Amino acid sequence: MKRLKRVLAVLLIVIITISVIYFVSLTLICPAINDARAERIKEEYLNIELPPQTEIVETYNYCGNITGTGNHVEIWAGALIKSELPEAELFHWYEEMKISYVAYEPLFWPVPEDLTSQYPETHSFIEFTHFNSMTEAKGYYIIGSYYDAVTQHDIRGH
């Protein structure tokens, strides 16, 4: 009987320990790992070679369930740029631009003149603080892309 109680106590301790480790990793450790990768990708946008008459105004990253389909974590990273170049020329530059992280679905779009919508509805998680002080959108563009998270074991994806 004592042996059974010991086995059950050890089993209970193991179950509680695994549960605590799982909870801590889901809410703290894995999100921090994904955030670190998102920051590294965002930093790459600060170091890209820009075409003439173009400057980076702000960079931004977001880590979470971006598309809303559930049970996965993605990273979006990008930059708000201001340029005097024509949109077609900037788009061509962006197609040729390389960063060291593999992206899927590279995005490039001009900031709409109607600053109330700011960007396409499907990208409503992007929050450039510079939008708060903008008076016109002419010459402003958003570049960025989606990237794989390091781990899907992140509470923001569920």
Describe the structure in brief.
The chain is α+β, with helices and mostly antiparallel strands and 158 residues long. It has 2 helices and 4 strands, in the order αββαββ. Strands 1-2-4-3 form a 4-stranded antiparallel β-sheet, covered by helices on one side.
Summarize this structure as a short list of keywords or feature phrases:
single chain, alpha+beta, 4-stranded antiparallel sheet, 2 helices, transmembrane, membrane
Describe, in plain words, how this protein is organized in 3D.
The protein has 158 residues and is an alpha+beta fold. The chain has one domain. 35% of the residues lie in helices and 23% in strands. It has two helices and four strands; from the N terminus they run H-E-E-H-E-E. It has helices at residues 2-46, 87-96; strands spanning 54-64, 74-83, 104-110, 140-148. A four-stranded antiparallel sheet has the order 1-2-4-3, covered by helices on one side. The longest helix is centred in the first third of the chain and has 45 residues, at 2-46.
